[in-house]
Amino acid sequence: MSLRITTLTPEVEADAVMAALGNVIDPELGIDVVNLGLVYELNIVGSDVSVEMTLTTPGCPLHASIGEDVRRHVGAVPGIGDVNLEIVWDPPWTPDQMTDVARRFLGWL
Amino acid sequence: MIPAPGVTGPPSALPLAGVFGGALALLAAGVALLLRPSVLVGYHGSGPFLALTHTFTLGFVTLVFVGTLQQLLPVLLVTDLALPRLGYLTQPMLALGALGVVLGFALGFRPVLLAAGATLVVVALWLAMLQAYLSARRSPKRDAAAKGLVVSTLYLAITVTLGLLLAGSRQQAWLAQLVGYPVRLHLAVGLAGAFLLGIATAGQRLLAMFALAKKLRTWRLRTITALVHAGLATELLAVVSALPLGWLAWSLIAAASAVQLLEVAALLKVRLRKRLEAPIQRYLVAHAFLPLAGVLALLGHPAPAAVAMLLGFVGIAVSGMLVKIASFLAWLARSRSASGAPALLKELMWPELERPTTVALTLGTLAVIGAMLWRSVPFATAAAWLLTFGALLQAVQVGHILFAPVAAAAAPSKPAPVAAAAPSEPTQGASSPVAASTSSGTHPPPATPAPERITRR
Fold this sequence. Notes:
heterodimer, A: four-stranded mixed beta sheet
């Protein structure tokens, strides 16, 4: 599933939010959630941001801490308002969603 | 949408206590063997031998199983535990009961200690079963792995109940007349129903998670479960009817073990994480003991075969996964604390300990098998030293994961590096190891994720 970014009269740059999401690391794999392909959707309405993302494994015990990291890092972007995060399991994550960077990091390229 | 788990999960201290207690029990078993290695070459129904085996099965494997169950159930069932704080009751009961059983055997079949200890263990495990059942009932996702884990918990509860009956039969003639001495059934249900099935089901999900294997097929897991059920039903029939069906029961269990090997091979084939961490490698090494157990059984050595399966397969597999699970739990606990957690789970581990642990436990198990095959005291002594060394390294590793100070990951910088975020390279400038590797020249620049953008102004 490709990443979908929607903005409506945005007061923050989508790229700044994506850069902040790039700082959220899966502590088991050591790869950020963007390169893992875990972020499905980013909506920016004014200064408020909604992130829809998944995790590599349903029921992953890291759910809460990764969610907190997303809120913490995105919330640190200047000018940001509310940060809403939704973890979804449908569609489930597949390795096809990883970037080549992540594949290379895992030793497959 | 499946409800998000983890919000009201069990306190991390509960599974961590199970893992740490289990590691200490393994060390205690090693030290006990070191004090009296000749126990391996003596009568296998003796008090000291049974004390040793129950330190391992109840103290190490079951304590780790029940502790980690509180984390594995939410992961496999994708729901919160029905009774998140039940572990505060079950784990001390289990630890105390295991101690009673071990002391009961070690002090020469003390009936009061055995009865009291076994009763505590039985109650603790039926409560754990209740936890698994109630949690499964509220789960929207009950796949083969989740069902298998619940069933293996049921078999574990049945195993210790059979153990209690055994202890009772030794003391009460009427009970002995009623149920006999179900030693074989106790062994079969424990080895195949609780441990083989438990490792196959939990291991499938954990190995897939740690090796990043996707597109799992469930038919092998369903086959393992069916074969274990069939094997245990056949063994029960053999015990009840006195028909010579034991060979068929163990053939079915051997077939289940063979399918488990296929399952692990299939998972490795589709894994995305090429380089596996040392604890996962240990989990894989454990599987080499399954065919060895089969060969030993075929050659007419049931006791060494049982050791290969119990100490080799179960013990080493649990020892490997225990380190990963402890890292996970400790990382989660630290991330919730004021001091914070390191960036990566593996930073909690002491990596140099892992390979020597694998080598010591593997060679130690082979030495136990050798000691039993050839009634060799030198082999038994070597086994005692190797296993104690491996268990000591394991305990130090778990202690290190739980208690060693590790620098927490840095908090996000303010303001965020907007300028560093090139539109086509969203992760450039990030502090992830991927980005770090990229900037150091280890990897070429990141591929561009191609987001679909819709902007309305």
